[in-house]
Design a protein that fits this description.
The chain has helices spanning about 10-15, 60-70, 80-90, 105-110, 125-135; strands at about 5, 50-55, 75-80, 95, 115-120, 140-145, 165-170. By secondary structure, it is an alpha/beta fold.
């Protein structure tokens, strides 16, 4: 599997574009990406798609709102209690206080049966490691990490799967 860099940013590919219009995502039953569109309406257990978002900042809350509008089950994880409380007051989803690199916190968030894990914290390292854990320990089929520092991919960019991450987003 090749790791793809989405240079336009997470909002052009997940949830909505910069004008706030929702974009659809289409992934087939084998979770392969179909062209440039990514739309999952049904999760891997045949029920509503379950998405876990790490990071209750502006991007995490904005993405969660759009996914909830698309009838997805959304769970937000963040270490900051105030950010978690803010997320719960602004989005109709579950938000928990926890670390994206702690197996117990990820298990509590329901990563074992999640269809997607999206790491949007301010730390590239946390995003990389948490996506790696989601892919290896919980076998989450779709993992997306927000990475600001592109040097993780070397001078030629990332050409192979890095730590099981499906997509790297450069905001």
């Amino acid at each position: 599997m090749q790791l793809k860099l989405i240079a336009n940013g997470v909002w052009d590919r997940i949830g909505a574009n910069h004008e706030g219009r929702t974009k659809e995502f289409a992934v087939d039953e084998k979770k392969r990406i179909e062209g440039s569109r990514i739309s999952v309406f049904v999760g891997r257990d045949g029920h509503r798609m379950k998405v876990v978002i790490l990071g209750a900042g502006r991007r995490g809350i904005r993405l969660a709102k759009h996914l909830v509008e698309e009838n997805k089950d959304v769970i937000i994880i963040d270490e900051d209690v105030d950010d978690v409380n803010n997320a719960m007051s602004r989005v109709d989803c579950l938000a928990i206080t926890g670390s994206g690199t702690n197996l117990d916190d990820l298990r509590e968030a329901g990563l074992a049966d999640a269809d997607a894990f999206i790491a949007l914290t301010g730390s590239d390292e946390t995003n990389l490691v948490s996506c790696g854990i989601a892919a290896s320990e919980f076998k989450v089929p779709l993992t997306i990490a927000s990475i600001r520092n592109l040097s993780y991919g070397g001078s030629n960019g990332v050409t192979h799967s890095l730590m099981g991450i499906t997509y790297i987003v450069n905001p």
